[in-house]
């Protein structure tokens, strides 16, 4: 199957610090890809470049063939983005916010109403969707932002730390939703520190360390690369992160 | 994999948003937000809203009266009818005023746009959606425009109206005011916006240096022009030669290419009345001339709008990337000598209080947003006070003494009022903000009261020193009686202690732990109440001390004062006033603190 997202030789600096270095990655429809790494490894920078917030200094990113720099609007309209810090307009209700988002993707008011109702139902926003967003808790905001990101049926969903601040029930909801949408053909690119969640729902994982992608593949493939260690993803991940940089035996793309 | 029906629908509809529909969506969203804000203000913040509207009206009316009398003076007291001084004076005032605002608007709009466009999470949301870059830029530009120009409107509208009333301007003068203001404001603001986008996208490393250099150059030029205007011998001031020199010195404000010149000329033309309309060619009619200036303003505003749109389309994403990826400088903090000095000078306080005081001082010192506002306001006041010596050379008659005393007490009241805005903005929210990190202080082995006491000491001590110095500067420049200096310093102490207590006490009685922004906490009901109570307290204290002192000093100097204003009587009143001020100060200090301490002890923190 052809990749829907192609990241080729992408690099980005923050001043003199290399944030992302020579990143190559293909993502396919119907796949959930989890990107792991320590703080400052380059995960969020990668996500920001993928959704068009930052321009790659080197390399290219395409979404369904659209270059994120040259055809930003076309590429971005195929994406849904859930940032780590959800932003909502304080003085709008959740419904008004979703209505605004639907309008931005070109839906008329009748279509927007149908789509908003669908997302309200799916994310359980009913009890608070007509309240002002300024009164929402972090979890409510996160669910509303998820609804906004899924409203236009994106081809690719980009999620930065989706489980942070959510209660166990909401985490379950998000996990089930992501798996269900992936089964329907959605491509999900998720950055997370929650290794258990990645192990549970990801089809493939990627591990970044100090701006470079050390490993991409399934958890099983990672286990095969290092059979001697404990078999939990946590142990494998820590082993990978703590290995010396020159140890190429672990730096492989399955 | 085949697309689901929903996906197919979405693919057909994508990119169908026209520019007009996009603009309508943003305006609808903005309208909804404004409607919510207005209904919230009406339902839950009536006191604050009423206070803001009333004070704004008062300020506006005061400016109108001031401008009216100034223009009336120029129109009726300087020279005779047809004297060129009239026209020259009005021309100088208009050109100078609008040229200054022209420059300020360029800077303020650029700086505000930088904040709203590159530091706002809303931009992140909009850039990750298929919104046109130019629409995002325009949306934030309009925000910056509103923020930059409300002050201009508040200053310029009473001036323009007063001018129209004084010169008996025809109806079209008033009809043109609003379009002229809007069109004019748009021009410098769009220049500021384009410069901001250009600097951030093309010169990200040098943006701060470039802006600072231009700002410093502008301030130096303006300072030089003002200094050369007012630094001459006082006898020469406001003479005919001085007037001509001043006009010559500020002739650069009347350059034809300046938008401020189009506005000034348009207004002056619109306000002009002609004696014999039959002798005109039509082209030189005031209505035609002013309409032409209005047309020039509107056309240039539209050009500015277009430039902002083009700049946003071309540079927004580059600029956003440049700001986001700017190297973060690590701030290595060392133990500053000033902290050690403060700690040593506070050694007579219990150690927990001293540690809390030094902690609050460090937070203040490392937050330029807070201390820069102190610096600007108190710096401006200081400049004003240091230039007060113009009064003292006017003689020593009763009227002069009355004026000097009045000015000195007004200065005291102004310092108090400005201090009250600072205690409302910075001291009142401290407990609310502390509540959010209460897990640190709450777990320490010290009584809760210590936290509140430390805030009170911090506020009282921190405000007393600059205020006392400012008032002393004012008194020294006015060369007033030693008795008045002593009364002023006593009043200043009462004000600082009382205002600190009101802010700390009310902050503990009415905390807001849900809000993390101190400005929003200060803008709530508690903050507004704090401001109102502080203003009442200042008025009470100043009246109690100023009136008896003033009458005591002028008693016995005039003819009729022997019966009404005998010095002996006023000596008693001076004492009563001091006692009254002490009682009011005591109540204002003890009551809010006691109530605050009780509320703070009972407070349940989440």
Stretches with pLDDT under 50, minimum 5 residues of chain A:
248-254
Which shape of chain B, going by the Cα principal axes?
globular
CATH class term of the largest domain in chain A: Alpha Beta
End-to-end distance of chain A, in Å?
17 Å
Computed Rg of chain A: 19 Å
Account of the protein in words:
Chain A is of the alpha/beta class and 254 residues long. Chain A has helices at residues 43-50, 72-76, 94-104, 109-123, 138-150, 168-183, 195-201, 219-225, 233-242, and strands at residues 3-14, 17-28, 32-37, 58-63, 66-67, 79-82, 156-160, 187-191, 204-209, 212-217. In chain A, strand 7 (156-160), helix 6 (168-183) and strand 8 form a beta-alpha-beta unit. The two termini of chain A are 17 Å apart. Chain B has 606 residues and is an all-alpha fold. Chain B has two domains: 88-269 and 281-324, no CATH class; 367-602, no CATH class. Helix content of chain B is 80%, strand content 0%. Chain B is built from 22 helices and no strands. Chain B has helices at 5-13, 19-44, 46-77, 84-118, 121-127, 133-167, 171-202, 207-230, 240-249, 259-271, 286-324, 337-345, 351-365, 368-386, 398-436, 438-441, 448-478, 482-509, 518-522, 525-554, 561-564, 567-602. In chain B, helix 4 packs across helix 7 (171-202) and helix 14 (368-386) runs parallel beside helix 17. Chain A binds chain B through residues 1, 12-17, 19, 29-30, 48, 51-55, 72-74, 76-79, 81, 83, 85, 87, 89, 91-92, 96, 100-101, 103-107, 111, 132, 152-153, 155, 184-185, and chain B through 1-4, 6-7, 9-10, 13-17, 21-22, 25, 28-29, 32-33, 36-37, 40, 121-122, 124-125, 127-133, 317-318, 320-321, 324-328.
Question: In a few lines, what is going on in this structure?
Answer:
The complex is a heterodimer of chains A (254) and B (606). Chain A is of the alpha/beta class and 254 residues long. Chain A has helices at residues 43-50, 72-76, 94-104, 109-123, 138-150, 168-183, 195-201, 219-225, 233-242, and strands at 3-14, 17-28, 32-37, 58-63, 66-67, 79-82, 156-160, 187-191, 204-209, 212-217.
């Amino acid at each position: 199957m052809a990749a829907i997202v192609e990241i080729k030789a992408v690099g980005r600096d923050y001043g003199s610090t290399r944030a992302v270095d020579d990143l190559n990655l293909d993502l396919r429809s119907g796949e959930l890809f989890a990107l792991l790494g320590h703080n400052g490894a380059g995960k969020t920078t990668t996500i920001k470049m993928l959704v068009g917030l930052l321009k790659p200094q080197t390399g290219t990113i395409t979404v369904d063939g659209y270059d994120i720099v040259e055809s930003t609007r076309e590429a971005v309209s195929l994406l849904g983005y859930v940032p780590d810090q959800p932003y909502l307009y304080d003085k709008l209700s959740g419904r008004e916010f979703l209505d605004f988002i639907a309008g931005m993707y070109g839906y008329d008011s009748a279509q927007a109403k149908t789509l908003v109702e669908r997302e309200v139902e799916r994310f359980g926003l009913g009890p608070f969707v007509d309240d002002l967003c300024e009164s929402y808790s972090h979890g409510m905001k996160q669910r509303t932002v998820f609804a906004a990101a899924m409203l236009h049926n994106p081809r690719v969903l980009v999620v930065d730390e989706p489980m942070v601040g959510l209660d166990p029930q909401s985490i379950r909801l998000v996990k089930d939703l992501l798996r269900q949408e992936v089964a329907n053909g959605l491509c999900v690119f998720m950055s997370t520190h929650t290794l258990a969640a990645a192990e549970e729902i990801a089809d493939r994982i990627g591990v970044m360390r100090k701006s470079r992608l050390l490993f991409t593949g399934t958890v099983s493939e990672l286990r095969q690369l290092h059979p001697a260690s404990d078999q939990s993803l946590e142990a494998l991940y820590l082993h990978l992160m703590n290995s010396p940089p020159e140890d190429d035996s672990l730096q492989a793309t399955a | 994999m085949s697309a689901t029906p929903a996906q197919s629908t979405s693919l057909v509809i994508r990119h169908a948003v026209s520019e007009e529909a996009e603009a309508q969506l943003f305006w609808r969203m903005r309208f909804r937000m404004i409607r919510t804000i207005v209904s919230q203000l009406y339902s839950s913040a009536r006191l604050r809203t009423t206070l803001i509207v009333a004070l704004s009206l008062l300020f506006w009316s005061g400016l109108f009266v001031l401008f009216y009398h100034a223009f009336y003076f120029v129109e009726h007291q300087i020279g005779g009818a047809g004297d060129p001084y009239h026209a020259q004076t009005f021309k100088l005032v208009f050109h100078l005023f609008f040229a200054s605002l022209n420059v300020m608007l360029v800077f303020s709009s650029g700086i505000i746009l930088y904040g709203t466009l590159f530091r706002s999470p809303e931009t992140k949301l909009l850039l990750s959606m298929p919104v046109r870059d130019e629409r995002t830029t325009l949306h934030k530009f309009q925000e910056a425009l509103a923020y930059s120009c409300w002050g201009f409107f508040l200053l310029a509208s009473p001036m323009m109206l007063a001018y129209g009333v004084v010169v008996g301007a025809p109806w079209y003068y008033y009809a043109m005011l609003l379009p002229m203001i809007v069109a004019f404001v748009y021009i410098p603001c769009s220049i500021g916006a384009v410069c901001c986008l250009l600097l951030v996208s093309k010169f990200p490393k040098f943006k701060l240096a470039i802006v600072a250099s231009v700002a410093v150059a502008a301030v130096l030029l303006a300072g030089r022009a003002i200094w050369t205007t007012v630094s001459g011998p006082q006898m020469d001031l406001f003479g005919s030669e001085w007037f001509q020199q001043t006009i010559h010195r500020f002739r650069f404000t009347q350059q034809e290419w300046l938008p401020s010149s189009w506005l000034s000329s348009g207004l002056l033309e619109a306000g002009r009345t002609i004696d014999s309309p039959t002798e005109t060619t039509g082209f030189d009619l005031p209505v035609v001339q002013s309409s032409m200036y209005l047309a020039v303003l509107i056309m240039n505003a539209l050009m500015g709008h277009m430039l902002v749109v083009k700049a946003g389309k071309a540079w927004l994403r580059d600029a956003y990337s440049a700001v986001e990826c700017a190297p973060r400088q690590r701030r290595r903090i060392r133990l500053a000598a000033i902290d050690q000095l403060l700690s040593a000078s506070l050694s007579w306080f219990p150690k927990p209080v001293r540690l809390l005081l030094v902690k609050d001082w460090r937070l203040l010192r490392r937050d330029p947003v807070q201390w820069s506002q102190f610096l600007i306001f108190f710096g401006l006041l200081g400049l004003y006070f240091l230039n007060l010596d113009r009064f003292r050379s006017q003689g020593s008659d009763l009227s002069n003494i009355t004026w000097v005393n009045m000015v000195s007490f007004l200065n005291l009241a102004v310092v108090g009022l400005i201090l009250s805005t600072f205690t409302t903005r910075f001291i009142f929210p401290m407990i609310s903000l502390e509540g959010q990190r209460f897990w640190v202080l709450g777990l320490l082995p010290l009584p809760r009261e210590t936290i509140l006491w430390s805030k009170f000491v911090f506020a009282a001590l921190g405000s007393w020193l600059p205020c006392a110095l400012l008032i002393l500067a004012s008194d020294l420049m006015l060369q007033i009686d030693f008795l008045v200096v002593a009364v002023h310093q006593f009043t200043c102490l009462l004000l600082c202690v009382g205002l600190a207590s009101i802010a700390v006490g009310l902050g503990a009685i009415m905390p807001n732990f849900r809000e993390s922004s101190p400005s929003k906490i200060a803008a709530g009901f508690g903050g507004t109440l704090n401001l109102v109570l502080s203003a009442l307290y200042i008025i009470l204290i100043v009246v109690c001390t100023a009136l008896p002192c003033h009458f005591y000093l002028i008693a016995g100097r005039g003819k009729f004062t022997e019966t009404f204003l005998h010095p002996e009587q006023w000596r008693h009143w001076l004492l009563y006033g001091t006692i009254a001020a002490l009682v009011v100060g005591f109540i204002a200090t003890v009551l809010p603190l006691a109530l605050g301490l009780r509320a703070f002890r009972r407070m349940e923190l989440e």
